Amino acid sequence: MRTLKMMEGCKETQVYAINPSGTTTTTNTGFGGGGGGGGEKFLENLLSNSVRSRSNRNFQAIQSKDAVNSAVLAEALASYGLPKTDQIEPHIDFCLKPMNFVETLADVYCRMEGCAQFGKSKMFLEQCALFRGLPDPKLFRKCLMSARLHAVDVHTKVVLSAWLRFERREDELIGVSAMDCCGRSMECPGSALVARYNPESATDPCMCHRDRGEDTGIYMDEECSTSSSRGGDEEEDFDMSFCIGDDEIRCRRFNIASLSRPFEVMLYGSFMDSRREKINFSKNEISAKGMKAAEMFSRTKSLVSFDPEIVLELLSLANKFCCDKMKSVCDAYFASLVFDMDSAMLLLDYGLEENAYLLVAACLQVFLRELPNSMHNPNVARLFCSSEGKDRLAYVGHASFLLYYFLSQAAMEDDLKSNTTVMLLERMGECASESWQKQLVFHQLGYVMLERKEYKDAQKWFEAALEAGHVYSLVGIARSKYKRGHMYKAYKLMNSLISDYTPSGWMYQERSMYCQGKEKTMDLSTATELDPTLSYPYKYRAVSKAEENRLGPAISEINKILGFKISPDCLELRAWFLIALEEYEGALRDVRALLTLDPRYMMFHGKLQGEHLVELLSHNVQPCSQADCWMQLYDQWSSVDDIGSLAVVHHMLANDPGKSLLRFRQSLLLLRLNSHKAAMRSLREARNQAASEHERLVYEGWILYDTGYCEEAIAKAEESVSIQRSFEAFFLKAYVLSETSPDSESSLYVIQLLEEALRCPSDGLRKGQALSNLASVYVDVDKLDNAIDCYTNALNIKHTRAHQGLARVYHLKDQRKLAYDEMTKLIEKAKYNASAYEKRSEYCDREMAKSDLSMATKLDPLRTYPYRYKAAVLMDDHKEAEAIAELTKAISFKPDLQLLHLRAAFHDSMGDLTSAIRDCEAALCLDSNHADTLDLYQKVQQRAKEQLQT
C-alpha cells in the first residue's frame, strides 16, 4: 500500500555462493530423527562448557556464554532433527474454496444485484466468507464494510461494527478504550444501537458530540420536560388509585390505560376493576415508588428523574402488562448505562431475564469490542460457548450465524485448538441455515479437529461439509483417513476428485501425499505447473535434496518460492540448510526475518524458540553497532533486498526496542512483502511507542488508511501538522490524496505537500521515497523534466527503485533505449527483480519482451501482466483458444480483476457471450465499480438480448 507509486518492490530468486568443495563437519546430516531427546543429550555432553540449557515444556533452548565453534553449532542444531520429507505436509485451507471460483463469484454478483436492499447485508457476509481465503485482506474488509453499510437491525450493526474494529486490533492500542468512538458512524458504539436502514449516512462522521438522547430517545425532549413539570397541576384530573400495601398512588385512568392493551382492558373492559376507583395492586411485584414512576411515565413518557432500581421495576411491569413504549424507553435507559465490562456483566442478566433487546445488544457490544480478552472471562465464555447461553441469547433476538461467525474467527486466531474454538464453531453450526453457512462451519470444524489430532471427528465434520456441497472438504476427508492409517483410501479419494473435476494444482499436491517415488514427483511437478504459488512442492523438493546432502540445490529450490512468497516455514527451512552449511550470517538473517513475520515462532519441530536461536547464531557472526546497522540498512534498501532489510531492522530493534521509527520502517517492508497482518502489528507497536503526540497521530493515520478510512487518515495528518510540521505527516497526507484524488488539481496540491515534506528533517531512505513519489506526480501533470530531476536526486541517495520511474519518463519522451538501459541498471542492482524484468519488457522489441516476461513469470508467477501480454499476443496471432487458455491458467490460482476483464473481452470478441457475461460478473463481484468492466458488461448483455430477439 505505502510503496512507491508505479514503483513496486522488485523480487528475484536469491542465490547464495556456496563453496562446492567445502564440507560440513555435521556427521549427522542424514536428516534423521525429529525428536528432541537425542539432541538434548548430545548438547549436554558436547557443549557442557560453552552452552547452558534451559527447558520449557517440549523444547530445549540454547544460549551461548562464549563464542561457540561453528562446527559445534552446526552439529548441535542438526541434532534437533533436520527436516525430513515425511515431516512436512501441504496446508489445508480453512475457508470456503469453491471448485469453480469464477462461477461462484458470478453467481454471488447476480444474486446481489437481484437482492432486496434489506437483504444486501447478508449477501455481503457471504462475499466476506468467499474472500476470507484470498491473500488480499482489502477485499474482505471492503465486504465487511459493505455489510455494515447495509445493516438494518441493531444486532447486525453491533456485530459488524465490532468486527471492523477487531480487524484493526484496536485492543492493542495503548490508551484506547473498547467503547471509544473513532469518529465514524459505521463503527460508533452509539450509532450501532440505532435500528434503521441508512446506508447513505453510515459513512458520515458520527454524532457522539451531541446529546445521546437525540439518537436513542433515552432522554426526554422539550415537550416531555414541560409536561413533567406540570405534575402538580394535573392532580385534580386523577380519577383512580392503585393501592400497594398502605400506599395509595393516585392516577389518571386514561393515561394508565394508554400504556398497553392489557391495562386498557383492565380499566375500561367488563371487569370489576374497571368500575372501581381503587385497585389493589399489591400482588404485582412492584413497589409504591415504582407505581408512582409508572404514573409519571404515563403522563411524561420520560424516565429522566428515576433511579436505575425504579426503572428496573418499570421494565418488569412493562413486560408483565405488555407496555411496549415503556419497555422500549426502559430498555434504552439501561443500554445507556453500559460503557465497560463491569457494567455489561452487571446488567446482562437483567437484560436476558427481562427480554430487553437493546440492553443485551449494548452488553454484547462491549464483549465483542473487548475481544479476544473478553473471552477469557469465564462468564462471557459460558454465555457464548454453551448451548444454554445461545438459547438465552436467541430468546432475546441476539443469537445469529453472524455473531458466532465473528466469535469463532476471533477464537481461531487466538487459539486454534482450544475447546472454546470448538464450542463456538458448534454454536455457529446450530445457527447455520443456508448452504454456504453449513459448508463453512462444518469444514472449519473438520479443520480444527484435524489440528487437534482428533481424526475420527475431523473426518465426520469434513464429510458433513461435503454433504452440504463443499467438495474441497474431500481433501480433509483424505487427510483424516491417511492419519488413521488408510493411505490407499486417501489416494483413491483424491484420484476420483481429479477424474471428476477440472484438475487444479492443490488436487495433485494432496494426492502426492499418498504415493511414492516417480508418481509422487510427477504429481508435485504437475501441481507446480498448474499452480506455481503452492509452497509445499518447493519445500518437499528442497528437503528431498537436503536428505541427499545436496544442500546447495536445496537452497536454490526453496529460493524459488521465497522469491515471490515469504512465509515463516520456508524461511525456517532455508535457515536450517544454511546452518548445516555453516553459513551463519545468512541463517541469522532468515531467522530475524522469520521472527518479524511471527515473533512467537518455534524452530526445529517446535522445540526451540526463535529468539534463542538468534542469540546462539549471533555469537558466530561479526557484531554490529547501531551505526553499522544503519549502513547495512542503506545497502540492503539500495539493493532492493527486503528480507535483508527486515533482518537489519529486527537487529536494530533488539538494540533499541522502543524506537517507533524502526517499527514504522518494519511495517513498510512487511507491506512490500505482502505480509499485511504482520505489517499492521508493527504499525500498532510504532503507534504505542511514539514519543510525541504528532508522531502518534501519523501512525494512527496509516492504520486508518490501511483499513480503508482515507478521509480520517488525512484528518490525522492535518492534526499532526497542526502540532508540529514533520516529514511523515506531510508524506501521509500527500500519499493518501494521490491515491484517492487523481485529478490534476489534487496532483498540484500533492506536489506542494511533498515539497513541504522534503523541507522537513528525515533520513535518506524516506527522502528517496518522497522524491520518487514527487517525480511520479510530476509525470502525472506532464512535467517530465522536473520528474527527471527528482528521480536523479533519489538515485543519488541510493533509492534504486527510482530507475524504474526514470525509465518511464524516458519512455514518455520517446527515448526507449535510455528507458531500457535504466531498467537494465535496476536488474543489475536489485536482488528481487521480477518487477524490473516485467517493466523492461515495455521498452524493447517483441521477442526480447517475451524473454523478459518469461523471466518475470519464472521469478514471480503472481504478477499478472505477463499473462495478459502473452494472451494479447496470441489473440493478435489469431490463436484465440490458446489466448483464453493462458488467461484461464492464471485465473485458476489468481482470480485477478484485470485477468477476468481481459478474458471477458476475448470471449466477447469470439462471440461467446455467455462466458463473457460470466467473467464480467465475476470481475464485478471483486469490484462492482470497475468502469471498464461495467461498460463491457452492459454491451455484452445488450448483444445477448439482441441475439435472443432474433
Automatic annotation (TrEMBL):
Pfam families: TPR_8. It comes from the Eukaryota. Pathway: Protein modification; protein ubiquitination. One of its GO terms (biological process) is negative regulation of ethylene-activated signaling pathway. TPR repeats lie at residues 768-801. SMART domains: TPR. Keywords: TPR repeat. InterPro entries: ETO1-like, SKP1/BTB/POZ_sf, TPR-like_helical_dom_sf, TPR_rpt. PANTHER family: ETHYLENE-OVERPRODUCTION PROTEIN 1, ETO1-RELATED. This is Ethylene-overproduction protein 1.
